[in-house]
Write a sequence for this structure.
């Protein structure tokens, strides 16, 4: 039997527990930890965990895999709290949206006889609570795995297998490369979504505009409804890459501005190029998100 501890029973942690129980049933024993007792009780009721523990140390004792499913910033404090209770050979992973900083924390705080394999399932919702957890959240998603430098090969294989258990496709990727890539396709969009809301709301016209806003505005601002603590941690741990993509976007937006001002044909051409690139991506990769409504 595989024993897994999940620290943090929100959307991702709860969904992971549900997915693992659905896939492996009694072959996995899942112990959960949540700071709020009512969340821990609800996780048991929903079947996301087999049992819960009132302390993180007791939750991770004697398990094979520890999954830290919290926002990014608390991970720095969680790692030293669990370090002394980990058995030799335990695999520690996370689900955070950035990897290089988390791996650096793991190297600083975890003992050398455990293996850290950073994880980032490329899925989610704009909500963050256990109430919205679902077993199918990981189906057809890419599950990024960024091992620490000293991670054992068997530990990496175990994490690849766990990703497959929940219906995801594992992808081994260097932490720095991961952070650069997701800064563009994940972190920049959340800032664009929020900044659009901010820009419009600053206008005296916002009360009237808000009454006219329809599906286009809804789609563009969906990410602005997300977990702000999560977003804060993303920006704090991936600042350089995010700033680089912001600068690139500003340059492109200025290019669009000039075309709107003085070149209708050029504007149509660049819009057509973007449309074709987006369509090509959708045909190859984007269709898998239809079930999730993305």
């Amino acid at each position: 039997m595989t024993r897994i501890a999940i620290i943090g029973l929100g959307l991702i942690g709860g969904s992971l527990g549900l997915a693992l129980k659905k896939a492996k049933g009694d072959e996995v024993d899942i112990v959960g930890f949540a700071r709020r007792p009512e969340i821990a009780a609800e996780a048991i009721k929903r079947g996301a965990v087999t049992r819960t523990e009132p302390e993180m140390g007791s939750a991770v004792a004697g398990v094979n895999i520890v999954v830290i499913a919290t926002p990014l910033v608390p991970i720095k404090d969680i790692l030293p709290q669990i370090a002394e209770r980990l058995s030799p050979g335990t695999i520690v992973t996370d689900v955070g949206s950035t990897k290089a900083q988390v791996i650096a924390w793991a190297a600083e705080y975890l003992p050398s006889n455990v293996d850290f394999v950073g994880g980032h399932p490329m899925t989610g919702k704009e909500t963050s609570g256990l109430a919205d957890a679902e077993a199918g959240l990981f189906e057809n998603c890419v599950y990024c795995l960024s091992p620490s430098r000293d991670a054992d090969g068997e530990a990496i294989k175990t994490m690849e297998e766990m990703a497959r258990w929940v219906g995801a496709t594992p992808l081994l990727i260097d932490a720095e490369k991961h952070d650069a890539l997701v800064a563009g396709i994940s972190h920049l969009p959340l800032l664009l979504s929020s900044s659009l809301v901010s820009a419009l709301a600053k206008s005296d016209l916002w009360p009237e505009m808000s009454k006219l806003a329809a599906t286009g505005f809804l789609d563009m601002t969906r990410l602005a409804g997300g977990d702000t603590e999560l977003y804060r941690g993303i920006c704090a741990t991936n600042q350089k890459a995010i700033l680089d993509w912001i600068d690139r976007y500003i340059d492109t937006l200025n290019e669009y501005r000039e075309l709107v001002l003085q070149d209708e044909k050029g504007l149509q051409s660049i819009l057509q190029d973007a449309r074709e690139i987006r369509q090509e991506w959708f045909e190859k990769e984007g269709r898998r998100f239809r079930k999730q409504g993305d």
